[in-house]
Design a protein that fits this description.
The complex is a heterodimer of chains A (about 325) and B (about 70).
Chain A (H helix, E strand, L loop, with lengths): L21 H11 L2 H18 L3 E7 L3 H15 L5 E4 L1 H11 L5 E2 L6 H6 L2 E4 L2 E4 H21 L7 H9 L8 H8 L3 E2 L7 H11 L13 H11 L2 E7 L2 H13 L4 E8 L13 H7 L2 E11 L2 H16 L11
Helix pairs in contact in A: 1-2, 1-13, 2-13, 3-4, 3-8, 4-6, 6-9, 7-8, 10-11
Chain B lengths: L18 E4 L3 E3 L1 H5 L5 E3 L16 H8 L5
Antiparallel strand pairs in B: 1-2, 2-3
The chains are: A alpha/beta (about 325), B alpha+beta (about 70).
């Protein structure tokens, strides 16, 4: 490259105006092109291209407590509008969805608080969110009974995590529930680390009194289900909130199919230097064959609770209210 | 370290392990649940598996205060 090749795109300084829309703000980010603003603007472009690609199946990988923090209804809306096609999540996020679907709540709290006082009041803290223990207990009880019912009526030897989520989703009435929305719209939910959540405790209590009618969840059964979806998809897109097991489950499936991801947006605050998956760069992921060399991709280092709603709102604005995805292959 | 003295009265609220169901008055007892008995019991209830090992929570104290009783 010559010297002038490095100097052909000046930073255009942001101009902020009253009544700007979210997309107009993101366009100012794009003009600056710098730091997190530039990356977020790029993420909006990648997500928009994923949605306009009629041959793309979009996987959303979800880790970190974004459901109790306020993204629950947003995610349910994305599922209903088919702006994602497959959800791969931690078990905990789905537990928090079910807590609310079964009548419980999460409360605005504070990070600077006497945690032993919370303990004495039976209140759990997730950074600055409070969850009353009774809301967990009531959800546990309802889900233990659901596990009992499924085990009693079922002729199946085992369920995949997706099949179990469908069974639970079929019983929900809450329109803002992620699990309920996924059931209604036939969007798969895979929970590759399901036992690392309250589901493990629920299953433990269920199995104690199941008298031989125990619900079996086969952790490996979701692998061929996920691979089949990818194999049928001409193009594969991935959006990641956080990272962890859900991110790698999507990437690893893309590797196992021998296809690699065509699109990727990662929103995380993790860093690559410590070697963990959540902070690993998309370039590193290319070395494994999980992401195509020329994939349309970007990584945003930001709080997902800020960056993800901004990205979704900007892209929804670009698409307009009459937009419908066509030709989704799943 | 001085061992904490056992309470005079036996209540679910000072049992070794309990979860709250409606703070502070109702407790969800998994011992009852496993026995297929009503698992939602008063904080002032006590079953035959009661075992003193305080959690340091306020359930019992607050229930007694609200019911006008002294511990």
């Amino acid at each position: 490259m010559k010297r002038e090749d490095f100097l052909n795109s000046p930073v255009v300084h942001m101009k902020l105006k009253p009544s700007m829309t979210v997309n107009q703000l993101v366009q100012q980010f794009e003009k600056s092109g710098s730091f997190g603003a530039g990356r977020l603007a790029a993420a909006c472009d990648v997500y928009e291209r994923m949605l306009r690609d009629e041959q793309c199946t979009i996987f959303l990988a979800l880790a970190g407590a974004v459901v109790p923090a306020g993204l629950r209804a947003t995610l349910a809306d994305l599922i209903r509008k088919r702006l994602i096609d497959v959800l791969v999540s931690t078990g905990a996020n789905m537990i928090h969805d079910l807590i609310e679907a079964l009548g419980g709540h999460h409360y605005k709290g504070h990070w600077f608080v006497d945690d032993f006082l919370l303990y004495k009041y039976h209140i759990y803290r997730i950074y600055d969110i409070f969850v009353p223990e009774e809301d967990f207990v009531k959800a546990d009880r309802a889900l233990i009974e659901t596990f009992d019912e499924i085990a009693n009526k079922s002729e199946k030897d085992a369920y995949s995590t997706n099949e179990l989520m469908r069974e639970i989703g079929s019983q929900l009435k809450d329109p803002e529930s992620i699990v309920g929305a996924a059931y209604e719209t036939n969007v798969p939910i895979f929970l590759p680390a399901m036992r690392d959540s309250e589901f493990a405790y629920i299953h433990r209590v269920h199995s104690h009194h199941s008298e031989g009618r125990e619900l079996t969840v086969d952790a490996f059964r979701e692998v061929p289900e996920m691979l089949t979806i990818m194999e049928r998809s001409p193009h594969i897109g991935m959006i990641v909130i956080g990272g962890g097991v859900p991110r790698n489950s999507v990437q690893h499936a893309a590797l196992m199919t021998g296809k690699g991801l065509d699109y990727a947006v990662i929103i995380t605050t993790d860093r690559p230097e410590s070697g963990g998956l959540s902070g690993s760069t998309l370039e590193e992921t290319i070395s494994w064959g999980k992401v195509k060399r020329k994939a349309d991709k970007t990584m945003v280092f930001a709080d997902a609770l800020i960056a993800f709603p901004l990205m979704v709102a900007a892209v929804l604005e670009r698409l307009g209210k009459d937009f419908h995805r066509k030709g989704n292959p799943k | 370290m001085e061992e904490e003295s056992k309470p005079k009265e036996k209540f679910c609220g000072n049992c070794r392990y309990h979860n709250t169901y409606e703070y502070p008055a109702l407790i969800f007892c998994f011992v009852q649940y496993q026995k297929q008995k009503n698992p939602v019991v008063s904080t002032l209830f006590c079953c035959d598996q009661w075992e003193f090992k305080p959690q340091g929570c306020f359930c019992l104290e607050d229930t007694l205060k609200r019911s006008g009783r002294k511990s």
